[in-house]
Amino acid sequence: MKITTTHNRKVLVGVLIFAAASMLMASWYVQEKQEDYRSAINLKMDEQETLMIKLAKLIDTNGADSIVSTIIQDCSLPERERFDTLLGKLSGLKGVELKEVDKLFDACGSFFSDRQAILSMRLQREVDVYDEYSVLLSLTGVDAGTNTSGERVDKWKSLNELELERSLLTTDLVNIQGDIINLLVEGFSTESEEISIKLEVAQNEKDSLSVLNSKSDTLREELSSI
After folding, report:
1. What is the mean pLDDT of residues 166-195?
2. Contact call for residues 123 and 163 (beta carbons, < 8 A)
């Protein structure tokens, strides 16, 4: 009877040791897998930031990547040069030249604002993806307030909001430019009340755009340098 009890104790101890070892191994395995998961998400976030920085710089320089260049195409180089020349002396245009700039506006006027709008929408999508990665990372137990998570996501969201606002103002300015050209074609003078109102609105929007430009430049440089 005593031998049986001793044997049973040894078996029980063995079972407990095995269970403890199994739990330890399982815990180690889970931790390893979790660390692999974190590393994978961090890598994706780094790649996402590289893409967002590229898009942000393209927006700042009025540039475009291959995707946007395929979607939005400018008028021909001679038309662009002629359009810019005529715009530079818009207030003094009459007759044939006024009709010419009106025609060129349809082909060339919104090119840069359209390109900026597409890039801003693309940036918004990439920031949303970045935010999704941040949420997944936080589920692993990583502090959501770290630079690679909450705080940095908030900065990217702020930059995206600024770029969307800039895009809307830029589009408004192009529309006002088109309205002024139409008024001139209809015979209104540059000193008319109708055109004066348009010019006043345009100046206010330019002032707002200048403030947004300064804010976005500061935030973009901060995000690019971290």
Report:
1. 92
2. yes
